[in-house]
Amino acid sequence: MPACTNVETWRASTSSEVAEFLKASKSPDKRTREILAVRAKLKPVDVYAYLRARFGKPNGFQNLLRKDDSDNIVHWDFQLKAGNEDVYICGHLREVHILVSEKLSDEEWKELINAIKSDFRRVAKEKSGILKSFEKYILFQNKYAAIANLCADLHASIVDSPDPIETVYPDDSKESLDASRKSFDENSRRIEKLFGDCLKLRLLMPVMAEAYINMLILTFCRSAIRDDRRAYDTFLRTNVPERLELLSVNCDGFARTVDKSVPGYAEFMTIINRRNFALHGNVDPVREPIEVVYFEERRPLFVQPGNSIDLLFDYMEAQADPSALLAEYEQLHGFLVAMTDCLVPRSKRFFEQVISDAYPGFRVDIRRPTRLFPDHYVWSGFPGMRYDDQLDVEW
Predict the structure, then answer these.
(1) Per-residue pLDDT at 187
(2) What distance in Å separates the CA atoms of residue 111 and residue 255, rounded to the nearest whole number?
(3) Parallel, antiparallel, or unpaired: how do β-strands 85-92 and 137-139 relate?
(4) What pLDDT score does 289 carry?
(5) How is 209-276 classified by DSSP, letter by letter?
(6) Is the pLDDT of residue 184 over 90?
(7) Mean pLDDT across the chain, nearest whole number?
(8) What is the pTM of this model?
(9) Nearest in space to 110 (alpha carbons), one of 330, 344, 390, 388
(10) Strand order in the sheet with 368-370
């Protein structure tokens, strides 16, 4: 039986043994080294807690190389001995990599993994104590960041919308008829996209703003209110002007009140006040007219003369009003920045980190969000690396 599968005999390597392990890896006469990546049968948190309970803090050489943050490929590693054999275990991104100095068959790898899991029970009390000492976080979607990205894409699409093509009026030639149809089709596609993009952006802007305000509340709400679910829900349900004024009352970190004196407040409230009308799909023909037309019995009598198709395109563009919408979008972002400026500098710097994170973490015990990981995603592997779910065994 391979020595490494007798997990109860494992001990932590000494400093000299760690150095010898590193030196041997560079020697032309390398010892046997077998490695397996475990991604299915062991959870990194369980393995780490188990090893911490048995051997204390990580003693592997990668511990000296890692940055003191979450942006590492190897998060932790333990250098161990099973008799005279080496056992190296590390947390490689989301996987557990196990390296041993013995040749193992697939069945023996399975035996080693099962032996580790079985030994959890032997040190269950100590392992449980280690687990309880960890800070628990829940990753969640930052709805502001998600909606802000959608709004930014719509904004760019509206800015880049092409100019209308001059209408071609057909004469008796086939060429002019084809050109007329082409100009109509292109103008039709252009105005339909522009109208749709403006409608979407106009609907999403107030939702984006409220998501920003609610992230401020989630981040800085005082414990007395945060711990009282009814009080917290009441705070979130207040109308927007009241919620803004209550930020400095119910939240920590504010140097001043968010009120009418904050730059952009009036423009912001204009955008917000149109929210309910739009979001509830309300219809008000007098408030949102396209055209006035008279009828005598069934005879339409138009006020506006001209080409019906060109006029329809003009009406749709006027209703979309992209220039005014783009100005409102910029005013809205200006107010969000001005609102953040109401925080004390330290709180402002922290919130800018949280609000820019698409998937922040929520610490369960103190009910506070924070940034946990960098914006980029990393995957790392080795040629020929085998995984536990590729072993030719039955689990």
Answers:
(1) 81
(2) 60
(3) unpaired
(4) 77
(5) HHHHHHHHHHHHB-HHHHT-HHHHHHHHHS-HHHHHHHHHHHBSSBSS--STTSTTHHHHHHHHHTHH
(6) no
(7) 90
(8) 0.83
(9) 388
(10) 137-139, 361-363, 368-370
